[in-house]
Amino acid sequence: MITFGIMSLNLETEAPYITEMAEHAKDLGIEAFRFVPTNINPNTLQVQGKKFDAEQKDWVNAEFPIPRILYDRCFYGEDEQSKQCLPIVSWLKSRKDINFLGYGLPNKLDLYQALKDTKLSAYLPPTKQVIDTIEILKELNSGKRIVIKPINGSQGYGIYYLKKNDKSIHVKTEKQKQIISRIFPNEGKFSQWLSSLLARHQYLMQPYLELTNSELQPFDIRILLQKNEHGNWGEIGRGVRNGTSGGILSNLSAGGMATAFSEWSASLPATRREFIQQELTSILTELPHLLEKSFLPLFEIGVDIGIAKNDSIWILDMNSKPGRKVILQTRPNLKEKLYCAPLLYAKYLSESKDQERKNIYEKTLSH
After folding, report:
1. Span 288-302, pLDDT tens digits
2. How far, in Å, CA of 272 to CA of 280, rounded?
3. Burial of 193 (0-12, 13-18, 19+ CB in 10 A)
């Protein structure tokens, strides 16, 4: 039997998805386990976690050796648990006797640096790290609208829209599904606020792109790519995410709504629809191979694509631990495929003679 472990920061994270996956494991000759990285005993290398009992169709407490193939679903934050788990996962990635389904992607700035001189450079919003408030003010004083994002951010957390109006500066963000707008009366007050923000997190800066639909809702296209049972990349599905009117985020976690890509695409004029399809095909054909050329092997990628009002197309984000909510809501017929995909790729890895590259594993821990 292939031993397959799913890691998360706590055992409640993604519980329905992980349980559905485990229910399909036995038929594929796989034993499913789940655990928190801090529950590995460093002396015995035994794990206190849960094993899926196929007879009971439920998880049971168990002690077991570290599974040979691991699926990392740890979403790291600033909390103490994340800080404890990160070095343990890094150590696991360095071991020769363990394979990860995917070794993760680095932060947004490293991703930009890896792709900015490739065939996909034209699809990347110009990006640079925010060093201090001076360069932000320089951009704003030139009349530009900009967006700042945490270098290690996810799910739209900590993204701000900035615009200067005469002497005042307008700042807009979204928190807990609410649009929060603030006007700073002068550069001094704004700089105090921004300096405090930069002291807590590293940020990057990009031009603001008008990625809204006809209802002025921010929208983008979420596309899920995965490797199949033969180790080849393919698209699983895509959906359109629409945010709140006047907002800046389309993420479902920020209150966005998902609609079927086919429904949205059918509403477009034929020439525009064909152009967008050709552009998406070009991006999705190149992207996985370019990422694996610079970083360690991956299993899945969530790609967020923005389409501006002038029909320019932008790669907004790439996520090596994507959610499945958009696909499940818009293509529920794909749920069995989604549950089985990690198991089928695990089986492929267990039977493959090719060893995963691990010499630069430290680059791959990401949020």
Report:
1. 999 999 999 999 999
2. 12
3. middle
Please give the CATH number for the structural domain made up of 2-100. Answer: 3.40.50
| β partners of residue 30 | 2
- Domain ranges, ordered by start, for the chain: 2-100, 108-123+212-363, 128-207
Give the model confidence (pLDDT) of 216-259 as tens digits: 888 899 999 999 999 999 999 999 988 887 777 766 565 678 89
Type and span of the H or E element at 279: helix 270-294
Query: Among all chains, which residue has been given the structure tokens 């700035």?
Result: 109
**What does residue 25 show for φ and ψ, rounded to 5 degrees?**
-70, -45
**How close are the terminal C-alpha atoms of the chain, in Å?**
32
Most confident range, picked from 131-140, 240-249, 357-366: 131-140
- pLDDT tens digit sequence for 81-90: 999 999 999 9
Choose among 187, 288, 306: nearest CA to 251. 306
- How much of the chain is in helix, strand and coil states, percent to nearest 5? 35, 30, 35
Residue 94 pLDDT: 93
Q: How far apart are CA 70 and CA 98, in angstroms?
A: 7
Q: Which CATH superfamily is domain 108-123+212-363 in?
A: ATP-grasp fold, B domain (3.30.470.20)
